Amino acid sequence: MHYLSFWQSGLVLAAIPVLHWIWLRRGLGVSGRYTALIDRVRTSAVPEADVEMSEADLVAALRAATVEAFGEDALEDPVAEAVALAEPTVRSAERPLVHLLFFVGLCAGGLLSAWLRADLAPTLGLRSELFPRVFGHSPLVSSLVLIFGGALVGFGTRISGGCTSGHGLCGVSQFQKGSWLATMAFFGTGVATSFALRALL
Amino acid sequence: MPSKDCPHMSACPMYGVIKLAGTLKVWQSRYCQADYAECARYKLSVSGQSVPQNLMPNGAYLKQGTRTSAVETG
């Protein structure tokens, strides 16, 4: 399989969150959008407007919403506040359709890329050297392994407050310590696992 | 020059909370005393509908038990 060179991939990956920010004024993050979409669907059965809150809860929730809309620094930093004020497109609550479009685009991009490479061949497993050697060729086993892997990724994403795109692309470029640590952890673990499997098999 | 203050400010329960918490002034400066026509609470109010307690000026709904640390990067 032919891949782009590392510097070409790096440039493309760097361009994606920058363009995303320019167009949408929000950081790129797949898990954040997924969470927002699930939250919207989950709470659609119970009208959000019915929630009654104490003043303490209201202030706590307002602080969280302030960080989400304007960034962590907006809570106390007058400079950040000034920047937020100068910013005409402060992030508003996006409709579920926007999140859905994002995911449709995500899948369409992958399909388009495979189609352009004439490499469009759906499979229930991973097309790699190691995967079939470890898990065999059974479509059922492959699917279960991938679903379990996805659940683990979701779990890790929730406890670390972001995914590979949120931490690795956006957080790292914003010099957020947590994102640097998270990226080192998941890439480090990935590389170590890969080397370990290659050595063992 | 016309005032930029929201005419609903004095009756808005959320403004009361925002005004008292210094760290939340960004909402006041962004909406209540500037672009109030864009405030979701204001828009709902002028359309004659009741305004939920937890509706934010940007159209999002506050959720009970939300913590600042729970904001997701990804």
Write the SSE topology.
The complex is a heterodimer of chains A (201) and B (74).
Chain A: H1 6-24, H2 30-44, H3 55-70, H4 78-86, H5 96-116, H6 130-135, H7 139-160, H8 164-173, H9 177-200
Chain B: H1 13-20, H2 25-32, H3 40-46
Number of helices of chain A: 9
List unreliable stretches of 5+ residues of chain A: 77-92
Would you report the number of β strands of chain B? 0
Mean pLDDT of chain A: 77
Radius of gyration of chain A: 20 Å
Number of strands of chain A: 0
Question: Describe it for me?
Answer:
The complex is a heterodimer of chains A (201) and B (74). With 201 residues, chain A is an all-alpha fold. In chain A, 71% of the residues lie in helices and 0% in strands. Chain A is built from 9 helices and no strands. In chain A, helix 2 (30-44) packs across helix 5. The longest helix of chain A has 24 residues, at 177-200. Chain A starts with 5 loop residues before the first helix and ends with a helix. Residues 77-92 of chain A have low confidence and may be disordered. Chain B has 74 residues and is mostly helical. Chain B is globular and about 30 Å long. The interface between A and B is large, with 52 and 35 residues.
